[in-house]
Target: Deaminase
Amino acid sequence: MGRILFFLILAGVAYIVFKSWQRKQVSGAGGMSSREKVSHNPREVIYPCKHCGAYSPLSEGVMLQGRFYCSADHAKLAGEKMVN
Ligand SMILES: [Zn+2]
Model:
């Protein structure tokens, strides 16, 4: 009887350890894939800056009334009125 109880506890502990390991694996993989989406987005659109002509991803520059600038400084230099 004592032996059966021992194996039941062992199975319970193994199950808990396995579940927590599985959760760690899933959350780790999810975090990695979301990071990858940010750094290597194949659909990231590259635009030329209206001021200096440098090509930059849309997320790194500023878009004002359909005109793209590589930075807020170049938008200002080109005469764009910044809201903030
Ligand atoms: Zn520029």
Summary: The chain has two domains: 1-40, 46-77. Residues 2-39 form the longest helix (38 residues). The longest strand covers residues 46-48.
